[in-house]
C-alpha cells in the first residue's frame, strides 16, 4: 500500500527556550490503515494531528500527506490541501449552530466548489447511512451529543478525503454515544477509509485501530499492535485545549471531505 502519511524528523517548537512540544518524530501510515495516537495530556497528540492535517507547520522535518509536501506549502496551498484531502472530527463537534444539519454537512463541498445537486445527494446519503437523515433540516442544537458527532463525521466525509482525522471524538460523549461513534469509526475503517484517531483511552484505541502510536513528552514511546500497547497511567487523559482554534480554521477552510457512502 502507498503511504498516506510520511513524517520525517518532524519537530514542532512553540517556545524556543524549552524542548519541542513534538519530536523529532518519524511516521509512515499506509493507505487503508487505522492508527490510534495515544498518550497523556500534553504529550503532543493534537500537535501531531494538526501537522498531519495541514493546520500547522513543523519547525523542522518534512510532512508528506497524500503525496503532497505540506511543509513546503503556503497558507492558501494548505487550505486547499485540507479541503481536498482531509476530513476532521473534534471532541466538541464544531458544528455551526445557525446552519441546519444538511447545510453543515454541505459546507466543505461548497467551499470546494463542488456541484450543488451532487453534493446534496451525497450529504443526504451520508446522513442516511449514519442514521440521522431525519434530522437533516434540524439545527444542531436540537440534537444529542452522539447525533452531533455523527453530523460532524458526515461533514468530514462529504468531500471523500484520503484521510479521516479524529481528535478525541468520544471525549465529550456519554458511554453509549461514545460506543456509537467508536463503532462508526470501525465501520469506516473496514470500508477502506484511512483513519488516524487521537485518544487518551487505550480501550478506544484497541477497538478502532490495529496499530497504536503512543506519545510521551512529544516523542514516540511505542509504535506497534494496539493490543500490546502499554496502558496509560491511571488519571492520565483529557483532550488538549489546542483543538478548538484548529477546528475553527478547519471549518472555515472546509477541512472535510468524505468517503464511504
Ligand atoms: N498553540 C500552542 N502554543 C503554545 N503551546 C502549545 C500550543 N499547542 C500546544 N502547545 C503545547 O504543546 C504541548 C503538547 O500539546 P498538545 O499537542 O495539545 O497535547 P495533547 O493533545 O497530547 O494533550 C503542550 O505542552 C501544550 O501546552
Ligand atoms: Mg489534544
UniProtKB/TrEMBL annotation:
Signal peptide: none annotated. It comes from the Bacteria. Pfam families: ABC_tran. Keywords: ATP-binding, Nucleotide-binding, Transport. Gene3D superfamilies: P-loop containing nucleotide triphosphate hydrolases. SUPFAM superfamilies: P-loop containing nucleoside triphosphate hydrolases. The keyword Transport applies. Residues 5-242 form the ABC transporter domain. CDD domains: ABC_MJ0796_LolCDE_FtsE (cd03255). GO terms for molecular function: ATP binding. InterPro entries: AAA+_ATPase (IPR003593), ABC_transporter-like_ATP-bd (IPR003439), ABC_transporter-like_CS (IPR017871), ABC_transpr_LolD-like (IPR015854), MacB-like_ATP-bd (IPR017911), P-loop_NTPase (IPR027417). This is ABC transporter ATP-binding protein.
